[in-house]
Amino acid sequence: MASVDRDVVALMDDVLHTKLLGYLQARGWKLHRAANADDLAALVEQQDFHAGLLQLQRVGNYKLFDLVGRQQSLQWIALMDHPFWNPTSQHRNFLAGVYDFHTLPVDQERLAISLGHAWGKGQLLKHPPARTDSLEHHGIVGNSPAMQTFSQALRKASKVDAPVLIGGESGTGKELAAHAIHNMSARSRNAFVAVNCGALPTHLIQSELFGHEKGAFTGAYQRKIGRMEAAQGGTLFLDEIADLPLDLQANLLRVLQDKVIERLGSSQPIQLDIRVIAATHIKLQEAVAKGHFREDLYYRLNVINLQIPPLRDRQGDVELLAQALLGQLSGDNGGKVKGFSRQALRAMNQYAWPGNVRELMNRIRQGVIMAEHPYLTPEDLGMERRASDAGRPTLDDARAKAEIDAIRAALRRCQHNVSEAARELGVSRATLYRLLERYALSGPYKGKTTPERLSSPATPAAKAAVDKQTQLTQPSHPDAH
Ligand SMILES: Nc1ncnc2c1ncn2[C@@H]1O[C@H](COP(=O)(O)OP(=O)(O)OP(=O)(O)O)[C@@H](O)[C@H]1O
Ligand SMILES: [Mg+2]
């Protein structure tokens, strides 16, 4: 027989207490019975419990939220009278947040099993297992085998000074990984300079990268230090490297070979000491095969190759990430959101996440702002339809994604000139504006809670692409890093 060492806090009437006490004690549970809801709150305050039993009829509604939300590491099991049970909306919210619930008369055997699971989960949340490979202090959350392998590679890459090419789908955390390499490297005291190769206006790209002297060209009123020089001693992160125009690829190759640059309008060579990390969401080798990317530059950049796994391949990470992101974002609703309903967790686990972590973040951000209840529902996350179809894209999704891709590409080619992009796409300006509006691609991106972010795009594919667009147009927004 197990020794009595697992404490359970409980609020229940005499009949139920008498019925359960002997059975649970014999299985190693020690019941700490509270006289009323206030007493229960006081007990929870005093002692670290991992599991609790609540006979719902014994708790006034006003106490419910408080009890469940108080500590993540205390998992509740609700016991309720089924035939007379008529839950209020508060009760429903409460039930969505408990670990399990049982109807009376209670099935003792089932209750003992669920108590064990609840207690185990509470323990885990209180004392998460040591993660030898965790990169959490660099903001990278994830403990799946796929992420552990990736983290190991990341650590190794940080120990050397060779160029790194990071591949991975949109929103998987390529920029975050580049930051982590820099922060773990011997260059961490110096700058990390990010350049989004797709967002630089073509006519400024040279001066942005290499800098210029005063008077180097019309409008060069003063000397400008380029991004490469700004990264002296540190790391230069070339994001979306596949978007770098071919002529600049040749320049970049020369710089990487010679480690010397000249500012525009100067013949003074500047010796560079930078480490280059490049990232791309497309398969660079295919771009090489098509002649869009220089093969010699590809080999120069691809000394260490890191592939970030898509979120759907990170077993168990969705929940971890969701909880971590919720922790970061819950302030957006004054801390009113306390967690996820079980249905929401199920929907998130079943979903394919085409927009990866960025999409998860956007959905939670939207949910936190829109939520009416303390536990986010699939509807809050815009996942009600998704829960059943496991994220397989519909024809509408595919159509939306194709439209967004075409619009984004045209805007980029036309340097975000809407009239020119509309002409290129063969639609009127009004139509393009309507599409920009529909996919929330338009408007200034001012901050996390702007309406543009709330008017969520119709599909996950759209969402992912929208986010990308936001980043392209606003590379300096802190959220882009
Ligand atoms: N493992 C992770 N843990 C915590 N946050 C993450 C993780 N991966 C990504 N994020 C967050 O998700 C967002 C997207 O990450 P990031 O910008 O690094 O992705 P990306 O691969 O560069 O995306 P894109 O291809 O769209 O540029 C960021 O806010 C980042 O902080
Ligand atoms: Mg990126």
Residues in helices, as a percent range = 40-55%
CATH superfamily caption of the largest domain: P-loop containing nucleotide triphosphate hydrolases
Bound molecules: adenosine-5'-triphosphate, magnesium ion
Q: What is the CATH C level class of the largest domain, in words?
A: Alpha Beta
Terminus-to-terminus distance: 55 Å
Number of helices: 21
Q: Taking all residues together, what is the mean pLDDT?
A: 82
Oligomeric category: single chain
What structural class should be given to the helix and strand makeup? alpha/beta
Shape estimate:
elongated
Can you tell me about this structure?
It is a single chain. The protein has four domains: 6-126, Rossmann fold, CATH 3.40.50.2300; 136-307, Rossmann fold; 315-387, Orthogonal Bundle (Helicase, Ruva Protein, domain 3); 395-480. By secondary structure, the protein is α/β, with parallel strands linked by helices. It has helices at residues 14-26, 37-46, 61-70, 89-97, 108-126, 145-159, 174-184, 205-210, 227-230, 246-258, 284-289, 295-301, 317-329, 342-350, 356-370, 386-389, 395-413, 418-425, 429-438, 451-454, 460-473; strands at residues 6-11, 29-33, 51-55, 75-81, 100-104, 164-167, 192-196, 211-212, 224-225, 235-239, 260-261, 270-271, 275-280, 304-307, 339-340, 375-376. The protein contains 21 helices and 16 strands. It starts with 5 loop residues before the first strand and ends in an 8-residue tail after the last helix. It binds adenosine-5'-triphosphate and magnesium ion. Magnesium ion is lined by residues 174-175, 239. Adenosine-5'-triphosphate binds next to helix 7, helix 15 and helix 21.
